[in-house]
Amino acid sequence: xxxxxxxxxxxxxxxxxxxxxxxxxxxxxxxxxxxxxxxxxxxxxxxxxxxxxxxxxxxxxxxxxxxxxxxxxxxxxxxxxxxxxxxxxxxxxxxxxxxxxxxxxxxxxxxxxxxxxxxxxxxxxxxxxxxxxxxxxxxxxxxxxxxxxxxxxxxxxxxxxxxxxxxxxxx
Length: 171
Fold this sequence. Notes:
Distance between the termini: 32 Å
Strand content: 15-25%
Strand order of the largest sheet: 1-2-3-4-5-6
Largest sheet: 6 strands, mixed
Number of helices: 3
Mean pLDDT: 88
Number of strands: 6
Shape: globular
Oligomer: single chain
């Protein structure tokens, strides 16, 4: 399922995340933007998994951030090792009320809220092979472009002002 749907009232509403997980994601996106990373939520990977956040740095480094909003969320979801093959660095992001000790040392860690995030532990680097890097970068780019296109289509359908369309353009 795409993160952006041209159907329904809100094209950006996904519906899969809890309020807590969305707060983490929002704070992480703000922090990563400040770190000059482009972010893409809910990106499907070649192994069939879906990463919570994938980032692309100015240098072309790819990070995956796995969002965990509670102890239970971490305990029941054991898919995170499957993300390692698709990123240079793997992080967890959580809220301050979730104990940092539950997260594995071989991954980085961010503490986040709706307003921002703080890196608590750097993730070790595991450089991607050139073929996987190319595949991930192309996938990131294509999905980001498709989501933008779907958002623009939804804006037209919902009669939301599009700054790229002149008001008197009646083509």
